[in-house]
Amino acid sequence: MADRNKRDAVVAPEKSRGKRPSAALPKLNLCGDIGLKIGRDGTWYYQGGPIGRKGLVKLFASVLRLEDDGRYYLVTPVEKVPIAVEAMPFIAVDMVRAGSGESQTLSFRSNVDDVVIAGRKHPLGFEPGPEGSLTPFVLVRDGLKAQLARPVYYELAALAVKRPGGEGLGVWSSGEFFAFPSGGD
Question: What pTM was estimated for this model as a whole?
Fold first, then answer.
């Protein structure tokens, strides 16, 4: 009987079994600028020096968010830290084509190893830049874009076909047509 009493003291009573209601998360603590930046070439910096550990960069990238105020933050369950982004937060460093024509798919791998297939959820586009320049990109997630590296853009441009039923060029991926900007606009 003594053993049973000991066991009963260790085993939770029937009433308290199951998941307890979780407490509300505290309000996010907005930390000040700690010197994080993503350079135009996709290099991540901390206090002016490049972060050389890819695993750390990938961890930071996994909690990167674009907020409604148009600024970028690293967001954890309890705090958010602002991060400066010179251009776009990611660079598309590789493209793989599967299939051809309207049924082809184009997948892109970012510098932090995110892989997306261009389509409705991950559109290709062009963002206006200084002096009328255009920067090609693919949407990775939640408003976060990956600028196409120059060699990747050249591969993409080589796949261009005429726009269905009209003028201009673009590419197909996942059943969607992504038009390239025309030179006359």
Answer: 0.79
CB atoms within 10 A of CB 99: 12
d(CA 73, CA 80): 6
Q: In the structure encoding, which two tokens stand for residue 23, read together?
A: 């407490």
Pair 179, 168: CB distance under 8 Å:
yes
Residues 174/105, Cβ–Cβ less than 8 Å: yes
Q: What is the rounded CA–CA span in Å between residue 77 and residue 12?
A: 29
Q: Tell me the Ramachandran region of residue 49: left when phi exceeds 0, alpha when psi lies from -120 to 50, beta otherwise.
A: beta
Per residue in 78-96, pLDDT (tens digit) is 889 999 999 999 999 999 9
Which of 110, 26, 142, 34 is CA-nearest to residue 76? 26
